[in-house]
Structure formats: structure tokens, C-alpha cells
Amino acid sequence: MPDVDLVIPCFNTARYIAAALESALAQAPPPARIIVIDDGSTDGSADVIRSQGGPIEYYRQPNGGISAARNAGIARARAPYLAFLDADDVWAPGGLAVRLAHLEARPQSDGVFAALSQFVSPELADRLAGRMRFDPEPSVARFAGTFLVRRASFERVGPFDESLKVGEMIEWLSRAEAAGLRIETIDAVVLQRRIHDANTVRRDGSSPADYLRAIRGALDRKRRAGEGAPG
Q1: CB crowding 82-116: b at 16 or more within 10 Å, else e
Q2: Lowest mean pLDDT: which of 10-19, 158-167, 175-184, 196-205?
Q3: Which domains does the chain have, with CATH numbers?
Q4: How many CB atoms lie within 10 A of CB 43?
Q5: 92, 189 Cβ separation under 8 angstroms
Q6: What's the pLDDT band for 190 if we cut at 50, 70, 90?
Q7: Quick check: helix, strand or coil at residue 140?
Q8: Contact, 2 vs 81, CB < 8 A?
Q9: pTM of the predicted model, to two decimals?
Q10: How far apart are CA 156 and CA 126, in angstroms?
Q11: Sign of CA dihedral 140, 145, 149, 155
């Protein structure tokens, strides 16, 4: 199997990043390199990351948001495939191999999304019980942690929009569609998304506005493409 470089942005996730790294290292095959971008953490995340073994590369930068951290990791990637994982989530066993096999069998495809399941972080289950509403059933999701993409294809589209705190995948996918990328989905569960009291959407008051801006930009891009199509 060809190599995969995994990019993990990290901001104050010392409680969770060890589990994220362990889930990546447990894949068969594991990523060739795990590139962790510490986006200005102040909670001891660096010590947790440095205590882990394996092909982990740690870089620190001033806080710039998840898109800036992902872009910094992508700029350091060299493998033919790129994968992403948020520092508070975990990959499901075998999830990387099934995505990689899918793309290797389909050279005409540029990337693949898969399914995720969600869970309330165990240490918060009692406090958050009844307050958190989410679908516990697995579902296919266009979510960074379920995505595997050929690096050359990603570079054709360009980096994530660093002006967005959330919704960056929606905006990037609209550019990918305009560029003609072929991105598929499979229903294998490859990601377990952790629900906790500091998820980006919960802690960032700009989230709804950024989502709306990303969606509006995607719709505008589709409209312009339609106007330019031959009648």
C-alpha cells in the first residue's frame, strides 16, 4: 500500500490527543507520518504529544484556527495520500485501510469520504446526559476525519480557507467540485467523533456565521458554474 500522511491540528486537547494518536498508530497499515500542528495550546498538549512513540512529527505555531493548522500540516506532507483527524476524535480500527483500498482500486477517483459514529466523552457523560442532542447511529459524513484524498488532487484545489473557523470543508468541497474532482463515499465507519463541552462549534460564537458564509460561497460558485455552462 502507498504511504499516507496524517495531519492532526491540536488546540488545548491534552485530555484527548493521546487517544487520537493511539488510534492512528493502531491502523494497519499505520500512516507513514503523523504531522501534529499545535495551534498555540496552553494546556500541556505538547507534553502529551512528545510522550508518544511512532512516526509523529510535532510543530507549534501561534493560534490561527483549524484551517491554518491543517494547512501547515499539509505543507509538510510528502506522501501520495493525505488524511485528517481532529485531536479530540479517534479513528475506528481498519478505517484507513478500507479507504486506501477503495482509492487504490479506483485510480480515476480523487478522494473518498466514509461514515462516522458519535459518542459522549466518558468523563462527561453524567454531566452532559440529556443536554447533548446527537444521532448515535453511524452515518456517512463529509467530515475531515472520514476523508482520504490524493495529495496531488488536494493541491489542485488549494488549501483550506483560513478565514473560516468552521465550515472549511464545505467551502473546500465547493472548489473541488468546480475543479472537477471525483470524490466518492463509502458506508464503512472509520471515525468515532467525540462529543464534549469544548467542541469547536460549541465554543466558538462565530460558528453559525462561518457556516452560512461557507454555504453561501458554495451556492454562489455553483450558480456561476451553471451560468457559464453551454445552453
Answers
A1: bbbbbbbbbbbeebbbbbbebbeeeeebbbbbbbb
A2: 196-205
A3: 4-228 (3.90.550.10)
A4: 13
A5: yes
A6: very high
A7: strand
A8: yes
A9: 0.86
A10: 46
A11: positive
